[in-house]
Each structure stands twice: as C-alpha cells, then as structure tokens.
Amino acid sequence: MQQTQRALLTLREMILEGVLVSGERLWEPALARRIGVSRTPLREALVRLEHEGFIVAPEGSGYRVRVFDHDYFRDAIELRGTLEGMAARRAAERDHDEASLGAMDELVEGIAIIVDQPRLSHADFEQYMTLNAEFHQRLVALAECTLLAEELDRIAARPFASPSAFVMAQAILPRSRDILFIANDQHRCLCDAIRSGDGSRAEQLAREHAHIARRNLAVALQDHAFLDRISGAPMLRAALD
C-alpha cells in the first residue's frame, strides 16, 4: 500500500506539473523504474488515476494521459455542485442531533474569524482551506448516503474540482477577502436551511456555492498571475493551447 500511494502521488504530481503531458503514452516498465516502485503497485496506482480521470485506457493501447480542455474542468466543478446540492437537500430532509449541526456552525464561525481580519496571511488561507474542506465533508456526511459520498469523493479528486482548489491562488486577488467572506456566508445560509428542513433552499445554495469555483476557473484562464499560483498550472495552461 505504501508503494502504491507513493506511485499514485508521484504520477498525479507529474501530470499536474506537465512532466507527463496530455496524450502521452505511459510505459509501465519505464515509469516503475523512474518512480522506484515495482510493477504491481504501479498498476494499482494507474487504476486509481484512471478512476480519478487523470488518465485513460483506450482499448488495446495501454494508458495515456487524458487530453484535457477547459470544458472538462468546468464540467467537473458543475457536477460537484450538483452532487453537493443533492447532499444538502438530503441533509435537510433528515433529522440530526444538535451536536452534528453545531459542529457545522463551529466551522462557519472558525472561518468567520479568519475572513473578518483586515488582511489575510498565507497561514490564514491555509487554515481556511482546512476548515472549508471539513465543512464540505461534514455536509456530505449529514446526507447519510454512502453512494453519494463515494461519487463526491471521486469527482472532487479530479483536477481543479475540489472545494478548495483555487483558495491559495485567490491570495493575489484584490477582493480575495470579500470572495471568502461571501463563500462563508453561503456556508452559514446552508446551515440555516438544513436546520430548518428546507431541502430546496439547501440544494440551491450548495449549487450556487460551487459557482464561486467556476468563476475562479474563469479568472485563472484569463489572469496569468492567478494561474501561476494554482497547483497544476502547467496542465491547465496546456489545456488552453
């Protein structure tokens, strides 16, 4: 498992950073030597990467790096929003103890402490990412649907589709604090909708929340300074060529 995880992380990073380019054939013996793992964990890692959408396996030709375009990234974000909308609606339709809902409130308040500061440091953005990721995980848990959780994990693993994919890059934007403030206000409204049992409102809010990531993607496609701060910028830049 350790070798498989190492191979997975290394290959994913190589694709994100453009070391392995779109459409490139992945030769297993050469990759195994390059990464320093045996063939079995390498194959297991390749299966995971195919599952995550980083590579494809055209019939009879082995694995290749997926040829991405910006529509793929945008669609992945939109799909995450749709699935999180379903999760939010199901969460609102279920009965929850106050401890579960209170944990969500605490995350919202923790983020509020960060974004209420006049200036945000690098550490603040990192802390925001941590709390934001936990908020989204708890939201899905409240839906109490294993299949939905599995599908969300799968889509969030795709390039630039996770809830915090663009957070660190936002640090250079003049309105970065305002963007995070709006996002957390949506968190707060989402908690209120779930607590009041308003499934339609909860679903709508979750979908709207994902639109922030889509706007950030649009900014990245136009602003080179913003793009350069994103993990995986070389792959995103290649998708624009």
From TrEMBL:
It comes from Kushneria sinocarnis. This is GntR family transcriptional regulator. Gene3D superfamilies: GntR ligand-binding domain-like, Winged helix-like DNA-binding domain superfamily/Winged helix DNA-binding domain. InterPro entries: GntR_C, TF_FadR/GntR_C, Tscrpt_reg_HTH_GntR, WH-like_DNA-bd_sf, WH_DNA-bd_sf. The lineage of its organism: Bacteria, Pseudomonadati, Pseudomonadota, Gammaproteobacteria, Oceanospirillales. GO terms for molecular function: DNA binding; DNA-binding transcription factor activity. PANTHER family: HTH-TYPE TRANSCRIPTIONAL REGULATOR LGOR-RELATED, TRANSCRIPTIONAL REGULATOR, GNTR FAMILY. Residues 1-68 form the HTH gntR-type domain. The keyword Transcription applies. Keywords: DNA-binding, Transcription, Transcription regulation. It holds the Pfam family GntR.
